[in-house]
Structures are given as structure tokens and as C-alpha cells.
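Fold this sequence, please.
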Amino acid sequence: MDSTRRAFLRQVAACSAGLAVATPVFETLARPAHAQGAAASPQPVVAVATGKDYAALVATVLAPLGTITAFVKKGDKVVVKPNIGWDRTPEQAANTHPDVLKAVVKLALDAGATQVLVFDRTCNNAKMCYQHSGIEAAVASLNDDRAQCLHIDDRKFVPVAIKNGAVLTTWDFYKDALEADCYINVPIAKHHGLSKLTLGMKNVMGVIGGKRGQIHQDIGNKLADLNSVIAPKLTIIDATRILLRHGPQGGNLDDVKVLDTLIASRDMIAADAYATTLFGLKPEAITSTVAGHKAGLGEMDLDKVRIVKV
């Protein structure tokens, strides 16, 4: 861990302890620590796997990327961030599938993580979302004290100054997400009434505080600004079943298409770009993908991405 990163985390800790009195509390790194892997290769790799055994499917899709051990190191504190935003069952395709989430958490534990936290700032009642999504039970079924599915604690949001933000200059972020050694993004791919689709970039909404409705104005640039703070080391997009209409909440099974597919990459923008094609759209149709690419967060041109289907 370099000195800039250490200073960043010291400021997070100081703020959460009530020691910092001025805002903005701290600035983002010149390039987020979690984004280092995304920029490491001149040609990003996007792995795509299909199969009905979702636990096996997670391991399969990670194999071309070097398996989970390329991301999670022994002793790491890991955050696995799914979408648990809605009071919906897995079949309704509004939240990350619990079997996919469980498999990711188990792999992180097997890699030697000392702690794996799962959480989301929900839109519907948190208790109902955690229960009906199946995610809370999935984590509990691992019977491992290192893995916890936690409800959001509003006291843990800390203000961050967004360096070089196109629109946002500061926003509150969840302390546990900021402090993770490894942040793994596991969104579901689905329709969204305002942003057309919700994929990897929009999943950041679950780790920010404040009035999130404001983000939906000029959403592309704002999501790029937010993701410059807390870019994931790994993005796994759950397309085991996708919501084609009436997103993000859904509810009608007629709007759901089963694909039994996962998409994984170090490069969240490339993963989002590929996932967009599952809906018959081009990457440039999604403003957040365009803004993220423009901000240097990843590659949206699929001709410049190595797509590995396994």
C-alpha cells in the first residue's frame, strides 16, 4: 500500500471518528487504488460464461482472468457489492442472484480473506429486500463468521472530495466500501427507466449516501464521477436472468429473460459495454458507459477488448 493510499484511509478513519470538521474531508487518489487492475492491460479481457450451475459458473467465468486469487489475497478485507435494492424474489430479476453472490463470497473466503462484507443501500424496505432477494440467507448458509451480510449504518457515510469530477465535487461514500482491500462489484443486468440499463457503473448507487435522486440528472457524468472514487478490482455482471422492461424494480415474470450467463472483467466499462449488447443495444447508447470511458475508467470499444467465451 503506497503512502497516498495510507493517507486516504487515515482520513476516512478520522472522519468516521468525528475528528474531521471541514468538508471536503479528503480527495480521491489520482487514480483510484481499486482501479489499478483495470488500467494495467492495453487490451482488457472480458470473460463470458454460460451454464445452469451458478456456483460452478462463477469459477468458470473467473478462470480466464486468473481465478479469484488474482484479486483476493490472503488476509484481505473484501467487500462484495451486489444489488439488493428491491423487495423482489430471485426469479423477478431485480436483484443479484443469491447463488451467484454466495459463490463469489465463498471463493473470496477460500482465497484467504479475513472478512467478506455484503451490503447495499436499498430502495425498498431493507429487511424485506435482504430477505426476499435470498441474499441474506445465502451468506448465512456459508456458516462462516468471516462472511457477513450487513444492513447499512447511516453513521458510516463519509464525505469525499471528487478530484477532477466532471459534475460532482463531493459526495458521501460508505466507509466499509472505501476501506476494503478488494472491492468486487456484482450487479444484475437489467432495464432502467431513466438510464436505459443498470449495470456495473450504476451499482455504485448502493454505497453512496445523500439524496440519490439528484444523481439521475446528468446521470452519465455523475456516475463516472462517483466511480472514479471507488472503482472495483473485479466486476461480475449477473445476466443469469435479465429484466427487459419496467426496471429497475420489475415484478412481472413476463419481463424476465433467462440467459444463464455471467460476464466478468477487471475493466468495469468493458464489462458494461458487452452486457449492453445482451439487450440489443450498442455501448454508446448508455451515457454512463460513454462518460466512464471518457473519464479514463475503462474501454467501451468492444473491438479493442478481448472477449473470451468459456
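Residues 19-24, 29-40 have pLDDT under 50 and may be disordered. The CA atoms of residues 178 and 230 lie 7 Å apart.
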